[in-house]
Amino acid sequence: MSGSPLAGIRVLEVGVMLAGPYATMMLADLGAEVIKIEPPGGEISRQVSDSYFASLNRNKRSVCLDLQSEQGQRRLAELVADSHALLVNMKPSVIRKLGLTFENLRRFNPKIVCVAMTGFGLDGGDDPAFDYVIQAATGVAAMTGDPDGPPTLPGYSSADNSTGLTAALGLLAMIVAGRGGQVDVCLRDVMLSQLNYRAAAYLNDGVVPRRYPNGAHSFYVPAQLFPTADGYLALFVTHDGFWRLFAAEAGIEGFPTMAERSARREEVLALVTAALAGDSAKGWEARLRPLGIPAAAVRGLPDALEQTPEALVTAGGFRLVGSPIRIEGYEPQYRPPPALPAADHSS
User: Fold this and answer.
1) Active-site option among 160, 189, 205, 240
2) How many percent of the chain have pLDDT more than 90?
3) Residue 293 to residues 222, 223, 238, 296: CA-CA distances in angstroms?
4) Is 160 a catalytic residue?
5) Residue 277 above 70 pLDDT?
6) Which PANTHER family is this protein grouped with (predicted)?
7) CA–CA distance from 268 to each of 113, 261, 289 (Å)?
C-alpha cells in the first residue's frame, strides 16, 4: 500500500478527556492529520498525567485557541475551511455556544462533517453523562456482578471507548459519502445498541436479564469463570463439539447436548468446578487451547501486556498499546502527543 489509508484527510478535534480524543487518535493512527484544538492552559486531561494524555493523543498536532474570543473564532473558521471534519465531545449547550455545529460552520465549508459526541444527544440536554453514569443508566451495571452482590462496573471506560469508535465510524461514513452534515452520537444510545441481543430478548420475548454467579452466560453452559487449583479460568463452551472435547480432557461423562446442560446447569457446573480444581488456570489453558476450546486464565494487566509484546508501541518517550487495526501493507508511525502550544493570537 502506498501511503496511509487516511492520507490527505484532516480532522479537527475539540476533545475532552477520553471519548473524543480516543476517536480521533484511531483516525490519526491510520494516517489522518488530526489537529487538536485546546483552550488556553491546555485540554484538562493534561492535568491527569503525561501517560494518560499520551495514551489518547499520540500522532496529533495541537493549536491553542480561545473559542470564546473573536480571534479564536476567526482562526477556527480558517481551519474549518481547509478540513474534512470536526469532532467535539462537550455538553450540547457548550457545543452550540462555541458554534461547533454544521449549521454554524457550513458557511465556511459546506462539506465539513461535524460530529457531536454527547451524553444524551444534541437535543438531549446537559445532564452530566460520565462513563459510569451511563453504564448505570442503561442497565449495564445492573446486569453485571454476582446475583447476591451489588451492581458492578468494569475496570475501564467501556462507554467512552465504545462511543469514540462509533463516532469515528460515523465521521468516516460521511466523508465517504462526500457531503457535509451533522453527526450526532451519544453515550446512552451507543451503550443501548451494544446490549443488542439482551435488549431484543426483552423487547420481543419479555426476558429480563438476570445475573448468574461468576459472570455465567444465560444459556451456554459451561460458560463463565471457574476457580482452579491456582487462579481463575474463563471457559466458554458454546456448542456440543467443544463440550465433547472438554469433557474428555476433564474426565466428565454425560450431558451431551447444550439443551441438557442448560436445563441441568447446577449439576454440570458442580462437575466442571470439581474437575478444574485438579490443575491451575494456566495449566488448563495450556491443555485446552491446543484442542481448540475457548479458555483463558484470568490475568492481571501487567501479565496480559507481557504476553502480548506485539501489541505494544513506542511514541516518543511513551510505551503504549498500538492501534488494533491491522492493514496489509501499512505500518503506523507512532509520534508522541503534542506539547502544549502557545496560545494562537493570529487574526
Assistant:
1) 160
2) 95
3) 12, 11, 10, 10
4) yes
5) yes
6) SUCCINATE--HYDROXYMETHYLGLUTARATE COA-TRANSFERASE
7) 54, 6, 21
